[in-house]
């Protein structure tokens, strides 16, 4: 599985419909300060369900919607679609390409889609559980996460290994059944 494509529209500085293609292997994003490099990684976290605006470097959730410039009006909603190549079947769904879309309006309501079918955020979380992908998966390593991985506290490192070992799914199910 690998990240194939991102479609961004109305998210932070991306007012226009923008398509970013990724190839297998290493991709670097370069550009001047303030050109939107970090907004690309914010878009990836957001579409995978990030709910913490602090993590997305804003003050309120609305801050992820294009807020306008001197020449351009603010937009009414933000939409991001992330596309994964799933030919190797890492994502447990019968599609060779898997897309996840999130759309959010200024009212704060978010809509989620898997391969264009409306779904709940919970469905996205479950689909990517134990794949390493996801807002807390080990495939996104923010600055703070480096400390977590290097931490000498075993509980901090445990979650990362649990996800890699593929047991988070079972742990979550057990916790949910114990709550009932
Ligand atoms: P650096 O090299 O300094 O890390 P960067 O390329 O990572 O820069 P970003 O942080 O991705 O830059 O982008 C910052 C820009 O995004 C700023 O110009 C900011 O005004 C713009 N921006 C953030 N949120 C919005 C929004 N909601 N609407 C419009 N522009 C936004
Ligand atoms: Mg940056």
From TrEMBL:
Q: How does it assemble?
A: Homodimer.
The UniProt similarity line reads:
Belongs to the SMC family.
The task this protein performs is described as: Required for chromosome condensation and partitioning.
Compartment(s) where it occurs, according to its Swiss-Prot or TrEMBL record: Cytoplasm
Highest taxon, organism lineage = Bacteria
In the complete protein, the residues contained here run 1 to 180 of 1192
Present the record's domain note. Contains large globular domains required for ATP hydrolysis at each terminus and a third globular domain forming a flexible hinge near the middle of the molecule. These domains are separated by coiled-coil structures.
Q: Which residues cross the membrane?
A: none
* Protein's recorded name: Chromosome partition protein Smc
**Residues involved in ATP binding:** 32-39
């Amino acid at each position: 599985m690998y990240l194939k494509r991102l479609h961004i529209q109305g998210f932070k500085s991306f007012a226009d419909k923008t398509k970013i293609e990724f190839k297998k292997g290493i991709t670097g994003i370069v550009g001047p300060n303030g050109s939107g490099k970090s907004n690309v990684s914010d878009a990836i976290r957001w579409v995978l369900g990030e709910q913490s605006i602090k993590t997305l470097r804003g003050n309120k959730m609305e801050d992820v919607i294009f807020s306008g410039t001197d020449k351009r009006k603010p937009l009414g909603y933000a939409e991001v679609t992330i596309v994964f190549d799933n030919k190797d079947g890492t994502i447990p769904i019968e599609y060779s390409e898997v897309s996840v879309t999130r759309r959010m309006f200024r009212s704060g309501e978010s809509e989620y889609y898997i391969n264009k079918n409306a779904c709940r955020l919970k469905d996205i979380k479950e689909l990517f559980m134990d794949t390493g992908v996801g807002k807390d998966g080990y495939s996104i390593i923010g600055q703070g996460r480096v400390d977590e991985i290097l931490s000498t506290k075993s509980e901090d490192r445990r979650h990362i290994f649990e996800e890699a070992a593929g047991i988070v799914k079972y742990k979550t199910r057990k916790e949910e059944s114990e709550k009932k």
